[in-house]
């Protein structure tokens, strides 16, 4: 992430029901005496459990950061109200690719990139839409 990994993970934990299971700065790693002062509080490794998945993240230098492009985190929810709530939270300050709407496969579906640069698909599926 572009220097906001901790902020993003704390946001996801608070608003999406995630649980941060690991967060370490460069200054906390073994042998950190050689870490430059401006990197001491930068996230080296973070892990969050959310929606049945484990996500990992870290801060990268701003000149190397690129938002997610062709990959999305898919978050399946159990109600239209929950889909709308999460859509409102994640779309604020972000970029909407497909507004929240009803589709043939979902009561509600949306695609967006949040203010942290993470791309999401929010899905409240119709029963029986998961064909094998």
Folded structure, characterized:
With 132 residues, the chain is an alpha+beta fold. The protein folds into 2 domains: 5-57, no CATH class; 73-125, Signal recognition particle alu RNA binding heterodimer, srp9/1 (2-Layer Sandwich), CATH 3.30.720. It contains 2 helices and 7 strands, in the order H-E-E-E-E-H-E-E-E. The strands form 2 sheets. It has a 4-stranded mixed β-sheet with strand order 4-7-6-5, covered by helices on one side. Strands 1-2-3 form a 3-stranded antiparallel β-sheet, with helices on one face. 22% of the residues are buried.
Concise description?
This protein is α+β, with helices and mostly antiparallel strands. The chain has 2 helices and 7 strands, in the order αββββαβββ. The longest helix has 12 residues, at 5-16.
């Amino acid at each position: 992430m572009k220097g906001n990994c901790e902020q993003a993970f704390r946001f996801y934990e608070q608003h999406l029901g995630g649980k941060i299971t690991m967060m370490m700065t460069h200054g906390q790693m073994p042998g950190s005496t050689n870490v430059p002062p401006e990197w001491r509080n930068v996230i080296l490794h973070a892990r969050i459990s959310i929606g049945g998945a484990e996500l990992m993240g870290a801060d990268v230098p701003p000149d190397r950061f690129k938002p997610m492009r062709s990959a999305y985190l898919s978050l399946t929810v159990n109600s239209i109200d929950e889909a709308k709530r999460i859509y409102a939270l994640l779309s604020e300050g972000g970029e909407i690719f497909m507004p929240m709407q009803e589709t043939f496969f979902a009561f509600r579906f949306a695609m967006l990139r949040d203010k942290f640069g993470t791309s999401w698909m929010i899905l409240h599926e119709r029963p029986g839409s998961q064909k094998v």
